[in-house]
Design brief:
InterPro entries: ATPase_V0-cplx_csu/dsu, V-type_ATPase_csu/dsu, V-type_ATPase_csu/dsu_dom_3
Structural class: mainly alpha
Order of helices and strands: HHHHHHHHHHHHHHHH
Number of helices: 16
Largest sheet: none
Protein name: H+transporting two-sector ATPase C (AC39) subunit
Organism: Pyrolobus fumarii (strain DSM 11204 / 1A)
Pfam family, one: vATP-synt_AC39
Length: about 350
C-alpha cells in the first residue's frame, strides 16, 4: 500500500507534515520539506507529483496545488474504477452461479449418470441464463461431454477444469464440490480485484489530509489549527462503517453497497451469498490444510473490504478544501462532512 497505509494511519503522515510546517510555515517550508524529507518515501513522491509543478508555476497559489492534485487523483480513481468494474462483473457472475447452483448440480449429475434431461418445471431457476444454456445443450447433445464442452467456451470455463479434477477424486459427488469451488473462486477473485482497487483509492484519504495541510499552510495558518484538523478528520467514516459490517448489519451494508460501484446489486440475498462463499473458501482451506497444501483463505468479509475503500467520498475533500480557502474554522467544516 502507498503512503504507509499497511496497518497505519495517514494521519501519522499528516502529523509529521504539520510538525515540519510548524518549523517553517508557508510555501517555503513546504518546498524545503519536499526537497529534504525523503523519510516520507512514497508519500513525499506523491506530494511532489501534484505540488512541485504548482509551485514552479506560482509559488503562492493554492489553486495550483488543487489543479495538480486533481490531475493525480483522477488517474488513481480511473484505475480504481477499472479494477472495481472487473470485480463487479465477477460478483454478478458468482451470484448468478450461486442462485443457479441447485439446477446446475441437478443437470450435471443427471447428464454424468446418463439420464434423460428433466422437465423444465423441475428446475428452480429455469430463466437463469447459465441454467438455460446448460439445459439447452443437454437437450441437444444428451451428454455430459456436450455440457462440458459448452462450458469451456463460456465465462465459466473454470468449471470444466474443476469437474475434471473433482470427478476423479469424488465421483458423482464431485459435481457439488466443483460448483461450490467455482463460486468460491469467483468471489475470491472479485475480492482480490477490490483489494487492487483499494490500492488506488486509499490515497484519496491521504490526499484529503495533504490538501488540508497544504492549503492551510499556504494561508500561513498556525500549527494548532492544522493539528485540530488532524484530530477532527482522523475518524473519517471507516470506524462507523466497519463497525456496521463487524456486527453483521446487512441492511446498513447493503445500503452502502447500493450507493457505490455495486449499485445494481440490490438482492438482500447477496449478504447471504457473501457468508456462504466465505464459508466455502474456509472449508476448502481446511481441506487443503489437511492434505498439506498451502492455502491463503479469505480472511476478511467481502462486504467489509468493499466498504473500507468505496465509501471514502470525494465530496468531503471538496467541502474541506472550500472551507479552508474561505478561512472557516475546522469545527465549522466538520459539521458539513458526510461522516
Amino acid at each position: 500500500m502507498p503512503f504507509g497505509y499497511r496497518g497505519g494511519s495517514p494521519a501519522g503522515y499528516a502529523a509529521k507534515l504539520a510538525a515540519a510546517l510548524g518549523e517553517a510555515p508557508g510555501p517555503e517550508g513546504i518546498k524545503l520539506l519536499l526537497q529534504s524529507a525523503y523519510s516520507f518515501n512514497t508519500f513525499i513522491e506523491a506530494l511532489k507529483s501534484f505540488a512541485i509543478a504548482a509551485w514552479i508555476e506560482d509559488t503562492s497559489s493554492p489553486r495550483g496545488i488543487e489543479i495538480g492534485m486533481r490531475r493525480w487523483l483522477s488517474t488513481r480513481i480511473a484505475q480504481a474504477r477499472a479494477f472495481a468494474s472487473g470485480a463487479r462483473e465477477l460478483i454478478n457472475m458468482a451470484y448468478s452461479t450461486y442462485i443457479a447452483a441447485r439446477d446446475l448440480t441437478l443437470l450435471l449429475r443427471m447428464a454424468y449418470e446418463g439420464e434423460e434431461p428433466p422437465q423444465p418445471d423441475a428446475l428452480a431457476a429455469p430463466e437463469n441464463p447459465l441454467v438455460k444454456h446448460v439445459y439447452k445443450f443437454y437437450l441437444e447433445t444428451r451428454s455430459f461431454r456436450g455440457i462440458h464442452d459448452y462450458l469451456q467456451r463460456t465465462a465459466f470455463h473454470m468449471l470444466p477444469k474443476l469437474l475434471d479434477y473433482y470427478l476423479k477424486v469424488e465421483g458423482a459427488n464431485g459435481i457439488d464440490a466443483a460448483i461450490d469451488t467455482l463460486i468460491a473462486w469467483l468471489f475470491n477473485n472479485a475480492y482480490r480485484n477490490t483489494m487492487q482497487a483499494r490500492y488506488y483509492l486509499c490515497p484519496r484519504l491521504d490526499m484529503l489530509y495533504a490538501r488540508v495541510m497544504l492549503n492551510l499552510a499556504m494561508r500561513g495558518a498556525p500549527r494548532e489549527v492544522i493539528e485540530e484538523f488532524i484530530r477532527l478528520l482522523r475518524p473519517c467514516k471507516l470506524p462507523d462503517l466497519t463497525r456496521e459490517a463487524s456486527i453483521g448489519d446487512p441492511e446498513a451494508i447493503m445500503l452502502k453497497l447500493r450507493s457505490t460501484f455495486y449499485g445494481e446489486v440490490t438482492e438482500p440475498d447477496m449478504i447471504k451469498a457473501f457468508a456462504i462463499v466465505e464459508n466455502l473458501i474456509r472449508r476448502e482451506a481446511r481441506k487443503r490444510a489437511a492434505m498439506g497444501i498451502a492455502s491463503n483463505p479469505l480472511s476478511v468479509g467481502f462486504a467489509t473490504a468493499a466498504l473500507e475503500y468505496l465509501t471514502l467520498d470525494l465530496y468531503d475533500i471538496v467541502v474541506i478544501a472550500n472551507g479552508a480557502f474561505a478561512g472557516a474554522r475546522p469545527s465549522e467544516i466538520a459539521q458539513q462532512l458526510s461522516v
